[in-house]
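hey m, so remember when u said the tokens were messed up on ur end? i reran from scratch. heres the input so u can diff it against urs
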Amino acid sequence: MKSRKENLQRKLALFFCFLFLCSATSLLAEDQDSVKVKAPSKKEEANRNVMLNASSATGPRQVPIGIPGLSIDVTIYEDNLPVSFFFWPNLPTLHWRADSSLSGIGLYKLSETGIVSGAVGYAVNSNSQLGGDIFKGKVNYSINHFGAQQLDMNMNGPIGKGWSYTMSMYQYTNPGNFKLGYADELERTQMYKVGLTKVFDNKRGSISFLYKYDKSKDLGSMYGYGYAPFIYKGDGSIKEIPGISLGTTNNVQQNGLIQYMDIKTGKLTTASFNDNNITGSYAHEFTGLFDYKLDNGYNLKMSAKFQRSVSRLNLQIPMSITENVTASDGYTSYSTGAAYTGNVQTTLSLLDQGKLNDFFYTAELTKQSGNHNWRLGLNEWYSKCDWTANGTFYTQSSSSTPELLTSATNGTFFGLNSSSEAYKGYENKLAAYFTDDWDVNKRLNLNYGVRAEYQKVNVDALPYARYSGFHAGSINPTTGEVANWVNTDRNFLNMVGSVSAVYKLANSYGLLGEVDYNQQHSHLEAYGGAEIPPSKVIPITIGRVGLYYNHKLFSIVSALTYIGKNNFYERRYMVNPDDYTDNQTIACRYNVKTVGWTTDIVTNPFKNFNMHFLLTLQNPEYNNFKFTAFNNNYDFSGKSVTGLSKTLIELDPSYSLTEKLRLWASFRYFGKQYANLSNSLYFNGHWETFGGVSYTLNKNVNLGVSVVNFLNQTGVTGSISGSDLMTDASKYKNYLMTGSYIRPFTVEFKTSISF
């Protein structure tokens, strides 16, 4: 009865908000004389090469803004709707790729993301390729020298009487940059999309219906396989271990065998990483789009989507390495039973599985009214998720072909569900937002907006301390506590506001400023750990002030920015610095802030040459970061944020030799990055490089060659597994560690055919 009542309340709320949206036309101002302020000719977000990703070949990169956890709040939108409700556990790249099924890809700036979604960070926005009144088609094919292949195609055209169709297909096969012992492919992804569009007889709008099916078997190309052991030299630099090259050597045990305990039932299952029920994800999506020009210059757009999906992810997280074990330490090969000597890596395996039913609805009413460009919007986003993360520890050899080991102390698999998560419930977000782009006079432009969001979370979880053998109904061997499901029902009001201004001092230069304030509360996934997350509001404040200058040869925007986020909550896997076999999942709460200066320049110094330059200097640091782990108190307040550089540089030159031949490159410099919370370990700065040649054979055929990491750097980024609590850096000179790395040198050939 309760679920029916809640469904009825949701439907009524949606119905009345929609009536409000449609009737709000009478509240908008009448037309006035138009005045236009010339804003900066180039915007920073327009020049980000977001699809050039040094971490993944299949998704957009996360644009760093100086605060952890913000660049992943929202990743990708399609047709004004999120690709997935939240990036975890339903990764957007399981259901979206930059292929021929899209008519265009852009990037939301920070203030726009906050108003339309309530999240913080840069977000990719894309639109489906719909049918039209003429037949069109496109085929893309690419292959790299490791053997990864992508084939995608779209055909669309008229049917008759205002109807048109679109059909798309995407196929991706990736054998990986290294050889797996238990599978021929690291990833196999398929996507299919079909749609119908009807243009109304009065030519004032259209309606479209789309269906998409995607299926992905990803053994870890995004998570778990981007690690390798290396020698940390103690001065921020690393060197490779002989026979273990970064990026082209597998770091996961070749047997592919895993045993896990179902956190819901306590049932033990032995399986392979290659099993479909371990790594196979899929989704069915039904989307409706409506676009209509109303009377008096109003335009109404509505998008709705239902997504039914299963997300299965296989994470292998290296925790620590024990060097030079001998036969007396009791390690044996799982396959042969022979005694093992050498280096031993402890790994946490997390088998994440979620079943989701999501519904998204967005409506926007817009009008150009004199000096105002108004927008009134509505979001109704709902996600129901049943999710588990079954955790298992195992040991393996640290070698070029890692093998599964058995320990005389722990056996083959141990610590079952001592690091595990589970929840089942729903989250609903109902929001209304309003924006206005207002040319106050010939010199001043104001862009302001507000969002009011009602967020409801109803979830059953297991908020108990974890131990080996933990599952629903289990009894804590120390305290006698029974792990029963606990329901949490919370309601929040999140407010978002944004004001930005451009003041034109002269024809070519002026001032700009922006203030954004965003309130958030924990998402559904935050309830899966050993405690209920705090109900405190998570406020994010962004302030920016700067200037712009436009010249016929170049355009420059330079600004000082402050970003702060309080009450941030996350769970981190940590290793006891006094005992590398002792691991815990720690719930952390802290504040984080950064002050930065960004300068963005676009220049065309001579014909056919273009250069984009972006420099960011920032100081991201933790505040009020205190917690207890392994019976010790830790305080990392004032420490620099891990994995974020204080100096960022982007250089993007391009030159057209002829009308058909173009050369391009992209250089990104990331300064020194701290690798653990204590800031005792760090990586020196490194470059990420991309380049290529594109050639237009004729109006229908384009050819291209691109290179990733053409400087062939063996850089390590992010954090060092298991090192967060290490404080004495002197112990880690020429020390064997495991960390994540940038993509290796890769050459890719591309062909695009349109007809």
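this time it looks ok to me. Residues 1-42, 70-74 have pLDDT under 50 and may be disordered. if urs says something different then somethings off w ur setup not the seq
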